[in-house]
Amino acid sequence: MRAVIQKVTQAKVDVLSENSCETCGEINNGFMILLGVTHTDTEADAKYIADKTANLRIFEDENGKLNLSLKDVGGSILLVSQFTLYADARRGRRPSFS
Fold this sequence. Notes:
CATH superfamily: D-tyrosyl-tRNA(Tyr) deacylase
Order of helices and strands: EEEEHEEHE
Helix content: 10-25%
Distance between the termini: 15 Å
Number of helices: 2
Structural class: alpha+beta
CATH class: Alpha Beta
Radius of gyration: 16 Å
CATH architecture: 3-Layer(bba) Sandwich
Largest sheet: 3 strands, mixed
Strand order of the largest sheet: 1-4-7
Strand content: 35-45%
CATH topology: D-tyrosyl-trna(Tyr) Deacylase, Chain: A
Number of domains: 1
């Protein structure tokens, strides 16, 4: 399992079709996470990533120190499936997903 976590003040996911644009998810203060899952990942891996993410202390406290977690500030998560995090581009110019 691979996660790219970005601290955001706002984020949203829009899905574009031929004639329209639909917002599928939107948050304010929190994390926008790109998550790649592969066939060897387990439920234990998912629990580990969830716990680690919820408890990352990267929000400022009243003294300006990075001491608060997502849980402490009541933040949100916008989770986006991103299988391309497992792309292997070591050979050639076309990524492999096998």
